[in-house]
Amino acid sequence: MSPRLDLLQPYPFQKLRELFAGLVPNPALPHVNLSIGEPKHPAPQLVKDALIANLDGLSAYPATAGSDTLRGAIAAWIGRRYNIPTPDAAREVVPVNGSREALFAFAQAVIDPTVPHTPVVLSPNPFYQIYEGAALLAGAEPYYVNCLAENRFQPDWDAVPEAVWARTQLVYVCSPGNPTGAVASLEDWQKLFALSDRYGFVIASDECYSEIYEGQPPLGGLEASVKLGRGLRNVVMFSSLSKRSNVPGLRSGFVAGDADVLAKFLLYRTYHGCAMSPTVQAASALAWGDEAHVEDNRRQYAAKFEAVTPLLAQVLDVSQPDAAFYLWARTPIDDTEFARRLYAEQHVTVLPGSYLARAAHGVNPGSGYVRIALVAPLADCVEAARRIARFCQSL
């Protein structure tokens, strides 16, 4: 077996199960799980109908590159959503089975292990754990760039030494961020693009939360690159229907951006064998073409934030994020102890922030925080917030 597998850390939810081992929560209180970022709103009827109407697609092998119809729908959505020239559907769009598998696979295609030094993959910290595993299994060294409150929860690119940049081949960006919900500004992107142009690394922009927002739509990586007049050079975005359309079980997303990079990625995927089912492709094309269900989705999350945030702000240092469906709350005690006692005493599950980060540069930037995912129904989220408030008042 590959010795690189031994480098992988337990996934956060495995750590959470171990943290809760032996606990018997208050049996008088029904469980409210706000730990996992799994959308719970109903899947759109148009997606369900399209799956049923296209079941004949199960009788055919799918093309790795996806259908012209799906790539065209994705390209058109990108153009509309970000107000940029519509990408070339044949060269600048690749459908994938959800952003998670693509974020992992991308590192395997991008990293060049033949260089005389160990390649580096930069990751925000805290981060989506796939970034780390992808880097390690590609034979690269992860380098964690802390995202602290004093820096608007944005990666501090200025803190990365020049010697690290010189070895960097891939940088993961997550905007809106998981777990903080912070959105990168045009100035943030400009700084990173300048570094990419200098050192030649590829930027993987994880934007799967881009459609969960209030007010102004979050700026995207491709959008920023076009606005700054540099085209799509060395930048690709990853997006998904999971959060946007409440279909995490559909496993449908895309990668779009630099055509030269995507040509190599598509070659890799041809051998990887992860083409999307024609049935799923047909339903996905319809989902990317419809915004009504997305707007309704945003309204539901907005109602949760409006109801929950004031309740929690009375007892915790927390505020509504720029985007996404998480609250990133500072805890009055150790974050793991907070999560453990909250589960035992109030039967509410949240995720310790330290489980989403690594100790780097003298600090674990997730320590002292918990991630609260507002995915449960509104009434359950409000009930959980009231229990969290009671718990905090008892500390």
UniProtKB/TrEMBL annotation:
Aminotransferase class I/classII large domain location: 32-388
Presence of keyword Zinc: no
Record-linked Gene3D superfamilies: Aspartate Aminotransferase, domain 1, Type I PLP-dependent aspartate aminotransferase-like (Major domain)
Keywords, in A-Z order: Aminotransferase, Transferase
InterPro entries on file: Aminotransferase_I/II_large, DapC_beta/gammaproteobac, LL-DAP_aminotransferase, PyrdxlP-dep_Trfase, PyrdxlP-dep_Trfase_major, PyrdxlP-dep_Trfase_small
UniProt cofactor(s): pyridoxal 5'-phosphate
The name this protein goes by in its record: Putative 8-amino-7-oxononanoate synthase
